[in-house]
Amino acid sequence: ELKVEQNPLFLSMQEGKNYTIYCNYSTTSDRLYWYRQDPGKSLESLFVLLSNGAVKQEGRLMASLDTKARLSTLHITAAVHDLSATYFCAVDTGRDDKIIFGKGTRLHILP
Amino acid sequence: GAVVSQHPSWVICKSGTSVKIECRSLDFQATTMFWYRQFPKQSLMLMATSNEGSKATYEQGVEKDKFLINHASLTLSTLTVTSAHPEDSSFYICSASSLGGYGNTIYFGEGSWLTVV
């Protein structure tokens, strides 16, 4: 059974700092997703990572995937308050597009 | 881009009544849709996989008779919470996958807040 673990679960950081969120998963998968969720809202798709070594960047966020280590990272560069949200990784189970979510990382960026 | 729409966005119902939530893929056909529930400050928990033209596949621990799923067309899946109780109050989110050039892309609906009083 696929298990997805994120850490940290909570993160409070100062504006301008860099930090990384980690997503580990337990079984082989060829697709990993990162989502953002604002309070009371649904999910916003950030990245889809499809292959080993994939790296994608959008603004201050960069995601990478190491399928051999079963690890993905979401790196935040020079954080700004607007990035405060909950970030989820989700891993494809390989069965009918079914994905399993991590517990999420609640990110609070202090001005 | 592809859009998945849920309706209603929020609903309040009395304990013991049933409530239906719709999930529509607006500009693509989805043979498979997924229903999730999310309690405050928790992650999304997959409830069931909705398959067009066949029975839904429920995750372990999800009551089939309580959460009725119907996927009658390639653009519509419905979740009916039967005999709702306050503990069913939650945020329900659906998703659908659209086949694209790099494989399927998953789109999420806006979510539906259910409050049972």
**Helix count, DSSP H or I runs of 4 or more residues of chain A:** 0
Shape of chain A: globular
Distance between the termini of chain B: 37 Å
The whole-angstrom Rg of chain A is 13 Å
Poorly predicted regions of chain B are none
Beta-strand content bin of chain A: over 45%
Query: Main sheet of chain B?
Result: 7 strands, mixed
Order of helices and strands of chain A: EEEEEEEEEEE
pLDDT averaged over residues of chain B: 91
Provide the structure class of chain B. Answer: mainly beta
Helix content of chain B: under 10%
- Give the overall shape of chain B, derived from the CA principal axes: globular
**What structural class do the secondary elements of chain A suggest?**
mainly beta
Largest interface: A-B, 21 and 22 residues
The number of distinct β-strands of chain B equals 11
Number of strands of chain A: 11
Question: How would you summarize the topology of this molecule?
Answer:
The complex is a heterodimer of chains A (111) and B (117).
Chain A: E1 4-7, E2 10-14, E3 19-25, E4 32-37, E5 43-49, E6 55-58, E7 61-66, E8 71-76, E9 85-92, E10 99-101, E11 105-110
Parallel strand pairs in A: 2-11
Antiparallel strand pairs in A: 1-3, 3-8, 4-5, 4-9, 6-7, 7-8, 9-10, 9-11
Chain B: E1 4-7, E2 10-13, E3 19-25, E4 32-38, E5 45-51, E6 57-58, E7 67-73, E8 76-81, E9 90-100, E10 103-108, E11 112-116
Parallel strand pairs in B: 2-11
Antiparallel strand pairs in B: 1-3, 3-8, 4-5, 4-9, 5-6, 7-8, 9-10, 9-11
